[in-house]
Amino acid sequence: MYDYIKGTLTKITAKYIVIETGGLGYILHVANPYAFSGKVQQDMTVYLHQVIREDAHLLYGFATEAEKNVFLSLISVSGIGPTTALAIIAVDDNEGLVRAIEQKNISYLTKFPKIGKKTAQQMLLDLEGKFVMAESETLSQPAPALSNNLALDEAMEAMEALGYRSSELKKIKKFFEGTTDTAENYIKSALKMLMK
Q1: How far are the Cα atoms of 52, 175, 177 from residue 60, in angstroms, in the given order?
Q2: Under a CB-based contact definition with an 8 Å cutoff, are residues 149 and 182 in contact?
Q3: What 3-state class would DSSP assign to 57?
Q4: What is the pLDDT along the chain (196 residues), one digit of tens a residue?
Q5: CATH topology of domain 150-194
Q6: Where are the domains of the chain?
Q7: What's 65-127's CATH class?
Q8: 8 A C-beta contact, residue 82 and residue 75
Q9: Which of 5, 32, 55, 157 could form a disulfide with 14 if both were Cys (CB 3.0 to 4.6 A apart)?
Q10: Which of 127, 49, 38, 126 lies closest to 83 in space, CA to CA?
C-alpha cells in the first residue's frame, strides 16, 4: 500500500493527473484534476490510496491527508465506490457533506451522482461522528485564472467523468457562457449549484 508520492506533475486530463518520479509516470485519479492547474512541471507531494481490482490496479490521489481521509471514510460505506467518493469530495471543502451527515439531511446526500436514498441512509449510519474537520483546513488548491472557455469545457468533461449527467451539465454550461474562470473554479461553482 502507498501513502504518498513525491514527483513532478507532468500531465492533467479530465479524469486524472500524471506524476513522474524515478523515470516513471504514475496515473493518479483525483476529484478535481484542474485543482492542480498552474503546477505542471512542479514538484509536489500527493497522498495516495491504491485500489486493486481483477482488471486494474488504480491509484487515487489527494492534495491533503484530510481529503484522503474523507475519501477512505466514504468508500467504507456499502454502495459507495471510488468514483462516487471522488465525485463527493470534489465539492469544495466538504462542509456541506459534514453538515448533511450531522443534520441527517438525506435530500442533500442524494444530490451526489449515484447516491440513492438507501445509500444516503447508509452514509448517515456509517459516517455519523466520523468527520471532525478543522475550519481552516480546506481540501482544494488555488489555480491561476485562464482567459478562454477551454477551462469551462475541461470542467464539464471532469464533472462528466465524476458521473454527473450530460443533461445537468448542459444547463450548468449555459449559465457560465460568456464568463472566464479556471476549470477548478467552474467545477466548484457548478457543484455548488447542483447541490442547492
Answers
A1: 11, 31, 31
A2: no
A3: strand
A4: 789 999 999 999 999 999 999 999 999 999 999 888 888 999 999 999 999 989 999 999 999 888 898 899 999 999 999 999 999 998 756 778 888 888 999 999 999 989 999 999 999 998 887 765 433 333 433 333 333 478 888 888 888 888 888 778 888 888 888 888 888 888 888 888 888 7
A5: Helicase, Ruva Protein; domain 3 (1.10.8)
A6: 4-62, 65-127, 150-194
A7: mainly alpha
A8: yes
A9: 157
A10: 49
Q: How far is CA 5 from CA 52, 131, 153, in A?
A: 18, 25, 29
Cell numbers linked to 50: 491504491
CATH of 4-62, one of 2.40.50.140, 3.30.70.2190, 2.40.50.320, 2.60.120.260: 2.40.50.140
pTM exceeds 0.85 for this model = no
Is-contact 154 162, C-beta < 8 A? no
Strand 16-21 to strand 57-62: parallel, antiparallel, or no bridges (unpaired)?
unpaired
Q: What is the DSSP letter of 35?
A: G
**Cell of residue 113, nine digits:** 451522482
- The 8-class DSSP code of residue 129 comes to T
Contact 1, 8 (CB under 8 A): no
Only one residue has cell 473554479, namely 185
Q: Do domains 4-62 and 65-127 have the same CATH topology?
A: no
Cell of 21: 518520479
Number of residues written out for the chain: 196
